[in-house]
Amino acid sequence: MSSESFENLSYEDRTFLPSQTFIDNANAKSDIYKEADTDRLAFWEKQANRLHWNQKWNQVVDWQLPFAKWFIGGKLNASYNCLDRHVIEGRGDRVAFYFEGEPGDTQTITYADLLSKVCKAANALKELGIKQGDRVAIYMPMIPEAAIAMLACARLGAMHSVVFGGFSADSLLSRIQDADASLVITADGGFRKGAPFALKPAVDEALKGETNVKNVLVVKRTGQETKFDTSKDIWWHELVDKQSGKHECEFFDSENGLFILYTSGTTAKPKGVYHTTGGYLTQAAFTHHAVFDLKTEKDIYWCTADIGWITGHSYVVYGPLINGATQLIYEGTPDTPSKGRLFELIEKYKVSILYTAPTLIRTWMKWGDEYPNKSNLSSLRLLGSVGEPINPEAWMWYREVIGKNNCPIVDTWWQTETGAIMISPLPGVTATKPGSAMKALPGISAEVVDDEGKAVGNGRGGYLVLTKPWPSMMRGVWNEPIRYKETYWSRFEGVYFAGDGAKLDKDGAIWLLGRVDDVMNVSGHRISTTEVESALVSHDVIAEAAVVGAKDEMTGQGIVAFVILRGGIESATGDALVKELRDHVAKQIGPIAKPRQIMVVAELPKTRSGKIMRRLLRDVAENRVVGDSTTLADPNVMKLISEGLKTGKSED
Ligand code: PRX
């Protein structure tokens, strides 16, 4: 067994400094790290002052491990911070959202419009009996009403629980039950891949289960035929539109619940990650300002995440709106009506800041450069990535083909549980390395530790932990305090274990190595799937790769790789290609990491938020019946993979 918790196999020495102009104009300058180190709590107090507080806090933090409270005694309203403040301070005419529906319909919503729409919705919710502390389930397509519904809940001090519109009726029901929601806000449907899809029937199906839901508020988006039960269903336009556009908001305690967001755990039951108000908003606003370098007067900001994920909460709704951003939201899929859709939108709206996920970046690589090259992307000045490790090759492609070598890239590491970005370059400070999230943000303490919880030195791999409480940390797992402690605070004494492997390179930059559950053990070496995947994708013909460890009599586990070829490359290159790829991996990171088997596939199994489901690939690699695949974005993909393998399997 190796003495390290993870092998540190690959090495990257390219670095990219921001341009001098970017450095000179950056929101966050290099002295910010020192400022935060000198007095961490004073630093966070300063960031909390980005918000409007109706009453100031009297204590910064109360830390009873693992339970934190921030800005105690302070009172504020999340919706006021996102909306009223801008209107009162004369920014009501600024565009908050440019909305583009998949069919091409558009809306332009100013801050004044958004305030009025949220007030109407809040008045409607009040009429339905929603009050502080209640839970409201939101099950919507990516349309402005989704954000409006969230902000209306927040305005009343009620908590939203957004359930991604791609989840099934069963998933929706279990989330409604766990949070004990009393209202569901949904739509008849939305547009995806060129056609309307229905949402309301899934709500009807879910509500056949036992719940305390009294009403279902339904936005008419597609106009499709929708079954209505008038004893509880209400059309949004009938109830909301007639309300007053004014609503005096109350100010709530800093620790008032803002939302619950469910995330899958190792057991079947999803975890209700619970966030409160003051600390969460502070860190969402600060990170959005510092990491995305937002210039409110000039930038058009676009985060492509759906509102059903934490990224949509922190970086479509709360962070950007608090900072007065003008942003684009888009309802549909990236390949409708063409694979160039998102690039056309960048050109049309002159998007300057783009925040997306490696899964989309690799998909774009797979489709080929001709799509981005058809649009004028020169408005872009900063690019962001989140959700998975971004392999150096995809990072370089993002930089060159999308950013035209002109945009700093911020690879941001964080989780639903952390609420906001924790590890990321600062775009006007950091000399970035392709594939590294670089270092903890000011005010955040991250370490990489070994099996015993001791910090590993530079050049070593281990487990990523967070050693000090931070403002936007989850306050618990809804209704399950013991699960909260056990899941996050029991692996290493006194620190939060994120579940991710990471390594420090020789300069101390942090490289994320994926979930530790995905680590492979080959002849006693613990090898991260991320490193082997990155090596594969660094070969010209590979667009995407997923690697798993499969049982192996000789070595404990053998490395099995599933690869997707880049656009325009024929898969018929067969055995020669497989040999070349194996040699390539050996050359990049060493013979120990050479895949035992490489399979060329057309698609990879992914969750709806784009994460590869390695568990299912392990089943294939070990010739087992494929396990529970209900969380797959595309239910057919495993069938396609298994069928493809009958012909495409290659081994040497
Ligand atoms: O494994 C890490 C990966 O995504 C996990 C968190 O997933 P979720 O709660 O869905 O939130 C995603 C959006 C914040 C992490 O434990 N992850 C997220 N960002 C990165 C990442 N892995 C590597 N690099 C990242 N930048």
Automatic annotation (TrEMBL):
The EC number of this protein is: 6.2.1.1
Q: Which GO terms describe its molecular function?
A: acetate-CoA ligase activity; AMP binding; ATP binding; metal ion binding
* Sites of N6-acetyllysine modification: K611
Q: Residues that bind CoA, according to the entry?
A: R192, K193, G194, A195, T311, S523
Q: Which residues form a coiled coil?
A: none
The UniProt annotation places Mg(2+) binding at: V537, H539, I542
All copies of the Acetyl-coenzyme A synthetase N-terminal domain together span: 31-82
- Name of the protein this chain belongs to: Acetyl-coenzyme A synthetase
Organism of derivation? Candidatus Nanopelagicus limnae
Q: What is the lineage of its organism?
A: Bacteria, Bacillati, Actinomycetota, Actinomycetes, Candidatus Nanopelagicales
Q: Which gene encodes it?
A: acs
